[in-house]
Structure formats: structure tokens, C-alpha cells
Amino acid sequence: MKQPNYRRHRFPPEIIQLAVWLYFRFPLSFRDVEDLLAERGIDTSYETVRRWSLKFGLVFAAKLRRARPTPGTCWHLDEVFVLINGKRMYLWRAVDSEGEVLDILVQARRNRKAALKLMRKLLKKQGYSPDAVVTDKLPSYSAALGNLGMKAKHVTVWRSNNRAENSHLPVRLRERRMQHFKSAGSAQRFLSTHAAVYNTFNVQRPLISRKTLRKFRGDAMATWQSAAAII
């Protein structure tokens, strides 16, 4: 697996890791991160933060994904439209029953072919077939699952897919903060990294005690530091 390469950078790895973590962990712009670093006495530009995010974000995300436990066997799929450079595109998303983001795919269509592409990518990436696939009543899902011989696993009960629909909220927040994505490629890169960071730090706060929250938060930060470390 590709490792972070901090050579030839003026700033030490700890500062680069902090900048990338701030950008993907919180709904901040590059200029916001620049200001937060400046408050700590670190004088760098928002353009430098952008380059760090592009160079290191996907590397960190790949290592974070490898550290995640096996997700649940019930997959929830949903799609929403996003405006990218003035053009309507569709953001296809798959999560498990706990809200773990399994994959995100930016596509131009909302048809059977697009749904089939998402399912094939999921099956290849996860390495197993789910017990159930929960979706809304969009016919594209039924057609795609029929092609894969998985129609018996398809669930479309009313409100059963709230888990996937709610998982779009963090992305909608970032989309507004970024004043829309600039291209399909940049959206795919950002969302892939954002999903890995989100999964790591999504500790279900309302459901746990403060003591447990501190432990989970510490574990999440340790996982992040391991992913960003030089091996």
C-alpha cells in the first residue's frame, strides 16, 4: 500500500496531518483551515492546504478503510442529485445498517446501468454478497439486482431506507460550504476521502456514555494517527 511521503515539504508531518484532518473532519474551507493554523502560529496559505489535501487525502483514506472492521450484511442504497459545474449529476451512496459508508459513486445517470455499476463495485470491494439490499422504489435498483440474481434480497418497505437518506446530510453540508463541487472527478476524490474519515470518527454520540465516548474518540484519533504516520 502507498505510504505518506513527507519528503521535500517545508512543514513537519504533524502540521500536514493536522491540516488534512481539519479539512476532512469538519465542514471547513481551505481558508478556514489556513486561519486555524495561523492562530497556532503556523504561517501557510490556503493553496498549500489544498495541495496537502489532494496529495495525502486519498492515501490516508485508503489506510483508514483497511483498518475498519467488516461492515454489516444489510446494505442501504440511495441516490441524490448534485449540481457540478452547472450540470445535474447523481451521487449514489451505499451504507450498512449502522450508517457505515460503504461506497460513494458520482455518475451522470440515474438508470439501471448506473445502479448496476454501483452494485458491482460494492460486491467487488466488500468481497461478499449482502443478506438484504434496502432501497427506495426507483425501478433502476430492481432491474440491476435482477441482473445480478439478487432480486429476492431486495427490500423496498416504506421508510426502511431512512438510514441511507440520512447519510446524505454531512455531504449536503459540505457541498453548501464548498459552494458546489467543481467537477465530477474532484467530487469523487473528496467524497471518497471524506467517507473514510467520517466512518472513523462517527461514534454515535447520543447512544453512549461520556466515558465510552472518550474511549471511542481516543480510538478514532489513534486510528487516524496510524494512517497518517510514516512506516
Q: In percent terms, what proportion of residues is strand?
A: 5-15%
Kindly provide the radius of gyration, computed on alpha-carbon positions and rounded to a whole number of angstroms. 19 Å
Low-confidence stretches: none
The fourth-level CATH homologous superfamily of the largest domain is Ribonuclease H-like superfamily/Ribonuclease H
CATH fold category name of the largest domain:
Nucleotidyltransferase, domain 5
Q: Which architecture name of the largest domain does CATH use?
A: 2-Layer Sandwich
Order of helices and strands: HHHEEEHEHEHHHH
Strand order of the largest sheet: 3-2-1-4-5
The count of domains is: 2
The tally of helices reads: 9
Which characteristics define this entry?
231 residues; alpha/beta; Nucleotidyltransferase, domain 5; 2 domains; five-stranded mixed sheet; 52% helix
Provide a concise account of the structure shown.
By secondary structure, this protein is an alpha/beta fold.
Word description of this protein:
This protein is α/β, with parallel strands linked by helices. The chain has two domains: 13-67; 74-198, Nucleotidyltransferase, domain 5, CATH 3.30.420.10. The protein has nine helices and five strands, in the order αααβββαβαβαααα. A hairpin with a 2-residue loop joins strand 1 (74-84) and strand 2. Helix 2 (30-39) packs across helix 3, helix 3 (46-67) packs across helix 8 (184-201) and helix 4 (112-126) packs across helix 5 (139-147). The protein starts with 12 loop residues before the first helix and ends with a helix.
